[in-house]
Write a structure and sequence with these properties.
The chain is α/β, with parallel strands linked by helices. It is built from 12 helices and 15 strands. Helix 1 (9-17) crosses helix 6. The chain starts with a strand and ends in a 10-residue tail after the last helix. Bound molecules: threonylcarbamoyladenylate (TXA) and magnesium ion. Magnesium ion is lined by residues 135-136, 144, 216, 328. The site of magnesium ion (MG) has 5 residues, from loops.
């Protein structure tokens, strides 16, 4: 059966109300959404993705005013970050409100909340009127989808409806900041640059976590099928020379220009600008993953702005595979 793809917001909201699954575009990546207040609907997300149930989901909201309905005493840092970056690619981890389902939080005392800025996500959330739990809309073994076609390829007819909003603008997932304690912590670099968040908070973010390690932060999370070797631009030539063939190099155009490609090694150029690079990253990894390569040698960009998120995803793609390898 071929999946149902379209742009009908009312139809999509009706499916969510009936306990169904809707894949929808956000400015970061496509999400696989369900009514966050319906345990059976949320359970289906885990079944379709093949994701362990203890991995918490982000609840997507139409507007920052809904923050207080989903968490307890958000505090000044949460309010300041919500005011500065919502709608936008930032997820806040806050202490959960009592009604938030364990199915959503994985039993954690916190909940992830985000107001996406994509116009189609905005219209869907407004039409539905309540929280939508959504992980990235990819299955086991794939990087996050940044087009409706990626969602079709990964989830096919297992999702009740796919809203097609074109390619995602940002292209990597949201930045996750834990504001559930007195010390705001960066759990995942993403679409909002760390520097911008620190400027609003007026203090540096601590890295890592005061909470349970997030499954999305496991090393193997974003790995494609080929073995990925991620190196600084300075070490690229040597890594390419040593890479088991067939191999391809993924690097910014400016870095590729000064590299002499050995015989039999393909190259895929990413834009030099970190924001544009993030936008292209997952489509490039998907492309390379269809070429039957043994090795992908990726050049790590400088870690300023969106470069930090790109470097993080490339390092994870290069990380060791584990039992927790759900690529969720
Ligand atoms: O950009 C995004 O964030 C996309 C779009 C669809 O919004 N969503 C996304 O969801 O990337 P997912 O499930 O693939 O990754 C969400 C990450 C996971 O690593 C999860 O463990 C973490 O957020 N997370 C969610 N709730 C959490 C909580 N209460 N405490 C700690 N981590 C949490
Ligand atoms: Mg994911």
């Amino acid at each position: 059966m071929s999946p149902s793809v379209g742009t009908d917001i009312a139809h999509a909201a009706g499916i969510l109300r009936g306990g169904g699954l809707v894949a929808f575009p956000t400015e970061t990546v496509y999400g696989l959404g369900a009514d966050a207040s319906a345990a059976a609907a949320v359970s289906r997300i885990f079944a379709v993705k093949g994701r362990p149930r203890a991995h918490p989901l982000i609840v997507h909201l139409a507007a920052a005013e809904q923050l207080d309905a989903w968490c307890e005493a958000p505090g000044q840092a949460a309010r300041a970050l919500a005011a500065a970056f919502w709608p936008g690619p930032l997820t806040l981890i806050a202490r959960r409100a009592p009604h938030v389902l364990d199915d959503v939080t994985g039993g954690a005392p916190t909940v992830g909340l985000r107001v996406p800025s994509h116009p189609m996500a905005q219209r869907l959330l407004a039409a539905f009127g309540d929280g939508v739990a959504a992980p990235s809309a990819n299955r086991f073994g794939a990087v996050s989808p940044t087009t409706a076609a990626h969602v079709v390829a990964d989830l096919g007819a297992d999702v009740d409806y796919i809203l097609d909003g074109g390619p995602c603008d940002v292209g990597v997932e949201s930045t996750i900041v834990d504001v559930s304690t007195g010390t705001p912590a960066l759990l995942r670099p993403g679409g909002v640059a760390r520097e911008a968040i620190e400027a609003v908070l007026g203090r540096p973010l601590v890295t890592g976590a005061s909470t349970t390690p997030a499954p999305g932060t496991l090393p193997s999370h974003y790995a494609p099928h080929a073995r990925v070797v991620a190196v600084d631009a300075a070490a690229l030539a040597a890594a390419v020379h040593d890479a088991p063939r067939p191999a391809a190099v993924l690097a910014p155009a400016g870095v590729l220009a000064s590299l002499t490609l050995p015989e039999g090694v393909a190259a895929l150029a990413l834009p030099d600008d970190p924001r544009a690079m993030a936008h292209e990253l997952y489509a490039a990894l998907r492309d390379l993953d269809t070429r039957g390569l043994t090795t992908i040698v990726a050049a790590l960009p400088p870690e300023a702005g969106l470069g930090a998120a790109v470097a993080d995803r490339l390092r994870r793609a290069a990380g060791p595979r584990t039992v927790e390898d759900d690529h969720g």
